[in-house]
Every structure is written in structure tokens, then in C-alpha cells.
Design goal:
Layout (H helix, E strand, L loop, with lengths): L1 E6 L8 H7 L17 H8 L4 H14 L7 H9 L5 E8 L8 H20 L4 E8 L11 E4 L2 E4 L15 H7 L7 H9 L3 H13 L5 E3 L4 H5 L2 H10 L1 H15 L13 E5 L2 E8 L2 E4 L5 E2 L1 H10 L4 E3 L4 H8 L2 E6 L1 H7 L3 H6 L6 E4 L2 E5 L1 H10 L10 H12 L7 H21 L1 H32 L1 H14 L13 H4 L19 E6 L1
Parallel strand pairs: 2-3, 2-12, 3-6, 12-13, 14-15
Antiparallel strand pairs: 1-15, 4-5, 7-8, 7-11, 8-9, 9-10
Helix pairs in contact: 7-8, 10-12, 16-20, 18-19
Length: about 525
């Protein structure tokens, strides 16, 4: 696919916080270990410490997870490699969006696979396994229960509660399924055969990316959670992660950067069948919000020992959990994700856990042929796609106008006449000066009004060109949000089954730009 790279800062879509991180601004250097460069992985590899015991638990968990799936050879090989000390992972994570949700979910995974490939070229003595961290423990169902295609929202309504990964694909889902008969075969197949949401997501990610060697991690496993017990104890009883995260957040805020996440004294949810709710300490008791559950200190201690899987980390501790159970070197995320990790550097340091290289996923805007044609008709380049529509429209109409509707010279001339005559009349009678001034204001308003009328007439004359521009902007920012955050992959996959495959040569995980792709 033909593509063009646009500097991120020229798109107007990214915060200064994110851009400053990518630029290596000195003020942010204390908040991470390694700059987002291929050279950084030399030290990252040397510094990563991951025990053989943890490797064994990880490999066994993955084998159990994939037990009922017919694996591709590439996936089997990756699981085997993870048993060896010279194998590392690079990871991205995302919610369990229905039918893969917005495009950037696909971009995240392709970026991660590409990073593993580039690292193997740069460091051939090591192996690098791309990982998709499946957010099975998330409870924000309203954020994931839909996808958008061709401007229409397709949504599954369910009364189920708790961790969304455990949601059953029940009668309500089967009714929803009937509303999307056009779905790509890969999605039809996995959702038809899956019993739960996480089973469906695991299977479609396997089908779409398994041959590229991507592995999925569902960390909602007692054996993996058991590796995180120390953090559970310290967070719930000593609140150390809260203290460390607050210190880093305050340091960032003192530099003018806003925090992206908000640490709590206790950063775990209690999770069981149909429930995932925050834990709070009320006096000597530990209370599970929105439930009748209350525990004493000793009861919580016993639960952590016996059932660590019932403690689900929030956004403050999920990154630490990831780095505890994976031999991980890098995390790839969106702009907000990358910078919120910087708030957590103190938490990682406290627990002596390696802080990974933080990289942005690849960003992309896909243009269909009709949009490219409209751009050519307007004489637009790819850079013009990121301008403000109202500003473009104002400048375009002014440049193409057959009549000068700004009336700048006329207003200056009229103003001079009123000022001159007002001064003369004021010598005769003081109040006449005020009358001329008031008349000038009214006359200028009339000219303004007439200028707007002429402008509207010019806009009607240029209606075809303006409509082309509106169509382009509606396409690239549907509903006012960037395409990749709204549109589902099926918009392109149904027309071109090789669409995802064609992204691999386009995406460079270490070239931070907006890829404008002509589909």
C-alpha cells in the first residue's frame, strides 16, 4: 500500500506530554530507564532479571490456556522458546473489544509483532516473543460492548456483571449476533463457537496473528497471580504503591504535566463470580464496595494466600503485574498509556522490578480511493488532512472569492469619514461628536452584516468544493475523533482480506509518525 509519514506534532492529535517524551526532553528523564530507541535494548536485555521459576509458571500457564486450541507451528515454537533465558517478550495490552473494536487495536498488535522482528535483526543472539495482554479482568463493559462500521454502532446489551472476560455469550449475545450477518468469517466462526468473551477474543487473535508468532496472555490465572502476592500484601496493608505513585505524579505536575491516572490507597479490586469491585479500608475492616463483603485483616491475609486470583490490580498496578510475570523488555501503547507509565517509575523501583522500554504503537489513517480522488480535486496533499476545517474553509473562501467580502478598506474609509466629520461637528456642539461615534459603530455593523451576506453567497458558489472537504474531514475524523479510534477493521478487511497483512511492511515500530495509507 502506498503510504506517507507525517510528523506527529504536525497532526494536532497528541499532547505535549507525549511529544516531549518522544523528543527525550531532559525534565522527563528521571521517570523512565531507557529511551525509545533500538539501541536502548542492549542495556534493557542486560538489566532484565527473570527467574527460571517464573518462566516455568508462565510456560505452564500458556500451555493450559491454549490446551483446547489447535496451535500454529509458530505459536508452539514461541511457547517453547519462553522456557529459555535468552528469550524475552515485547507486549501490548488492550480491552476485549467486540469484533476487535476500533482500528488501533489491530495497529497495536501489528506494531508489537514488527518490534519483535526488528529486535531479532538487531540482537540475533536472543529471541523476542510478541505478546497481547488480554484485559480479561476489566469490568467496564460499556467501553467494549460495541463496534462502529460505516457510521453505524452495533452494540451488545447484557445484564452480566464482573470481569468482562468471564461474560457468557448467552441468548442476549446470540440475538446481537443476528444484527451483524456481514461480519468477516474469522469473527463469525470464533463467536459462534465460543462460550465466553475471553474465549472468543483469544481465538480471533489466534486466527489473525498466530502465524506471526503472537501469543496471548490471560493473566487471570491463580498460578500467575501467586507471583504477585508480595505486592498484594504491601499495597493493601502498607499502601506503598500509592505513596510512590503520588510522589512521581506530583513531580510530573510540578513540571507542568497532568497525571493520567489517579492512585488510590488500595489499588486492588476484589474479583469473584459476577463481581469486580474496589477494596477500601474502613477502620479495621476491608470492605468490597457495592457488596455486602467485609473482611478482617487476617481474613484478607488468608485470602491472598489461598486465592490470589481474587485480587485484581487496577491501572496503577497492572503494569507492575505484567512485568512481574513476563520476561518483558518493552511495552507498546497509545499516547495516554505511554505517559501514564511515567507516573509509576517509583512503584517499579520500590519493588525492584525492571521498568520496560516504553514505545508508542504505530498510528495510521487509511484513505479509500474516493477520498484520495476528492483530495486530488481540491489539490490537497497528505499534510492538508490535519488542518482545522473551519480555518481551511475561511481561508479557501477568501482566496476564491469573486467579491471582496471582508471590506477592510471600505471600513477604514468609512471610519475615517465619521472620525473626521465627528471632530468637526464636535467643535460646534460637543454631543454631536458622540452622535457621530455611535453612527460609525452602526455603519460598521451594517458593513459587517453585508460582508457576511456576501461571504455566504460565495460559500454557496463554492458549495461543491466545500462539500468535498466536509466529506474528507467526516471520513478521517468520524464524529470528531481520529479514524483509528472509531472505525472497525472490517471497513477495510471485508473489501480486502489481505488488509492486515499489508500493514506489516508499512509499520515501523521505531519510526514515530502518522502513516497515511492509500488502501
Amino acid at each position: 500500500m502506498k503510504h506517507h509519514c507525517i510528523e506527529l506534532k504536525k497532526t494536532g492529535q497528541f499532547s505535549n506530554f507525549f511529544l516531549d517524551y518522544l523528543d527525550g526532553k531532559a525534565d522527563l528523564r528521571p521517570f523512565y530507564n531507557h529511551a525509545p530507541k533500538i539501541e536502548s535494548f542492549h542495556n534493557a536485555i542486560k538489566e532484565k532479571r527473570f527467574s527460571e521459576a517464573h518462566r516455568q509458571v508462565l510456560v505452564e500457564s500458556l500451555q493450559n490456556q491454549y490446551a483446547d486450541i489447535s496451535l500454529f507451528e509458530e505459536e508452539e515454537a514461541q511457547i517453547q522458546k519462553l522456557a529459555f533465558s535468552n528469550t524475552f517478550t515485547v507486549t501490548t495490552g488492550h480491552q476485549l473489544n467486540l469484533y476487535s473494536g476500533p482500528l488501533y487495536f489491530i495497529y497495536k498488535i501489528v506494531s508489537t509483532i514488527r518490534l519483535a522482528e526488528e529486535l531479532k535483526k538487531a540482537y540475533p543472539d536472543y529471541d523476542f516473543v510478541p505478546i497481547y495482554w488480554m484485559a480479561t479482568e476489566d469490568h467496564d463493559f460499556d467501553e467494549i460492548n460495541y463496534f462502529k462500521l460505516d457510521g453505524k454502532k452495533y452494540q451488545w446489551h447484557s445484564d452480566q456483571t464482573g470481569a468482562v472476560g468471564n461474560f457468557e455469550l448467552d441468548k442476549s449475545f446470540r440475538e446481537f449476533e443476528k444484527t451483524v450477518p456481514f461480519a468477516a468469517d474469522v469473527f463469525k466462526e470464533v463467536y459462534r463457537n465460543a462460550k465466553t468473551l475471553k474465549e472468543a477474543v483469544l481465538n480471533y487473535v489466534h486466527e489473525l496473528f498466530g502465524k506471526k508468532g503472537l501469543l496471548v496472555v490471560d493473566a487471570q490465572v491463580p498460578a500467575l497471580k501467586g507471583l504477585f502476592r508480595q505486592v498484594m500484601f504491601e499495597d493493601i496493608f502498607s499502601h506503598t504503591p500509592h505513596k510512590e505513585a503520588v510522589l512521581k505524579t506530583e513531580s510530573l505536575e510540578s513540571l507542568g504535566y497532568s497525571g493520567q491516572i489517579f492512585p488510590r490507597e488500595i489499588n486492588f479490586f476484589y474479583m469473584d463470580h459476577g463481581i469486580r469491585e474496589r477494596i477500601e479500608q474502613h477502620g479495621d475492616e476491608f470492605v468490597v464496595l457495592n457488596s455486602e463483603l467485609r473482611f478482617s485483616k487476617s481474613e484478607i491475609e488468608e485470602l491472598i494466600e489461598a486465592h490470589p486470583e481474587r485480587f485484581s490490580p487496577n491501572v496503577v498496578l497492572r503494569p507492575l503485574y505484567q512485568e512481574t510475570i513476563l520476561p518483558n523488555l518493552a511495552y507498546l501503547g497509545g499516547p495516554a498509556e505511554v505517559v501514564y507509565w511515567l507516573q509509576l517509575k517509583g512503584v517499579f523501583d520500590h519493588f525492584s522490578v525492571h521498568f520496560p522500554v516504553l514505545l508508542p504503537r504505530n498510528f495510521a489513517l487509511v484513505l479509500e480511493p474516493l477520498i484520495v480522488q476528492k483530495m486530488e480535486q481540491l489539490g490537497w496533499s497528505e499534510k492538508d488532512l490535519f488542518q482545522d476545517f473551519d480555518a481551511w474553509k475561511k481561508e479557501f473562501v477568501a482566496s476564491q472569492a469573486s467579491v471582496n467580502f471582508e471590506l477592510k478598506e471600505e471600513k477604514e474609509c468609512l471610519s475615517d469619514i465619521f472620525d473626521k466629520k465627528g471632530q468637526e461637528a464636535e467643535r460646534l456642539e460637543k454631543s454631536l461628536g458622540e452622535s457621530f461615534e455611535a453612527a460609525k459603530v452602526r455603519a460598521l455593523k451594517i458593513l459587517d452584516h453585508m460582508g457576511k451576506k456576501v461571504r455566504k453567497a460565495e460559500e454557496r458558489r463554492l458549495e461543491v468544493q466545500i462539500k468535498r472537504a466536509e466529506d474528507i474531514f467526516d471520513y478521517i475524523k468520524p464524529g470528531g475523533s481520529p479514524q483509528e479510534r472509531v472505525v472497525n477493521v472490517m471497513q477495510f478487511l471485508l473489501a480486502d482480506p489481505e488488509f492486515i497483512e499489508k500493514l506489516y511492511p508499512v509499520f515501523d515500530p521505531l519510526d514515530f509518525c502518522m502513516n497515511v495509507i492509500e488502501a
